Here is the input.
Amino acid sequence: MTRHGVVAIALAVTVAAVVGARGSASRGRPRKDEDHGRPSPPPQAEQGPRSDARPAGSADPTDPAGENPTPTATPAASAATSPAPAPTSTPPPLPPRRPALGTPADWVELLRLPALFTVPGDALAGAAVAGRAPGARTLLAIGSSLCLYQAGMALNDWADRAEDAVERPHRPLPSGRIAPGAALAAAGALTALGLALAARAGRPAFTVAVPLAASVWAYDLGLKRNWAGPPVMAAARSLDLVLGAAASGGRVRDAVPSAAALGAHTLAVTAVSRRETQGGSAAVPLAALAVTSGVAYALTPPAVALRLPADRGGAAPLGPPGLTPAPGGALRAALALGYAATVARPLAHAVLNSSPPLTQRAVGGGIRAMIPLQAALSARAGAPVTALCTAALAPLARRFARKVSVT
Here is the structure.
């Protein structure tokens, strides 16, 4: 065999091997032209679990030997095969939310509006003990006192919001009905308005209103948590009475004794209020009862005044010599008795049982007792009309205090 023959045989063998390999690879696969007449299998629809689904890991009933268990479906596969929920037409309405600024009822509770009835009597008593009749400047002093008092209430709750969240969660700030920033802004605005009204009443009134506002802010922002709290609060209430005397144009020094009596009462009530949520020892209510009893005794007029016989050159008075009732003493005595009854009874209960409810009642009684105290101070100064007008605020304070707590 020649060399050309060997090459020809090798080429033939190689071509045959290549053709055989391609034929085995394409064997069993339909040709392209045969696929047009065969229908394509329908796509698998997404559907939920079949009614005849078997538990995971159970055997196929067509496999008696159980050698081919049904594979367990994975959570991803279940989620992929489960039908998607139909979209709703409109989203469900959200529950209504209270505005952060609160409602009028929330602010009535925050500012403790029933306690405001105890404020006008300070300026009225101040004008009476200064020997002045109430006028337009006295009304400005009353407006200034009301604004500064409400500022102190809002600032008090703002400073105590963390403590109230534990002890008084129902209050407007810890319950979320009023935002803390709104309460702080209200305190600042009311303070500015109170100082503006005092300035309108005159320089003497503004001179008293500045330390009054400073004492309110100092008490609420920190001093009430230490021993200085009750004295500072007592000073603030005393300055409130002096504000009425200064705005009315009277001498401030004439108002000092009455301001001291009002301050002593405030000192006693504030000391009791520091334990109104925990209760505690009966020593503090007992000391407060002693202080307020002393104030009531100082307000009580002498039951009789000594009437001496006339001089030789004068006419003898009618009736036998002796003792006669003091002029104007009946009204003063009635107001002093009303003050003692209002403050002494709840304090006596707190002495016997210093539980938080009875302590809170003692504080509430001490706050309401300021009205007959102011009226008695006006009556002692010889201003019965002012005293009666002030005393008329007591029933209103008692009525509204049943709806909104003053403590």
About this structure: The two ends are 129 Å apart (CA to CA). The first strand starts at residue 304 and ends at 307. Residues 1-8, 13-81, 304-325 have pLDDT under 50 and may be disordered. DSSP finds 16 helices and two strands in the chain.
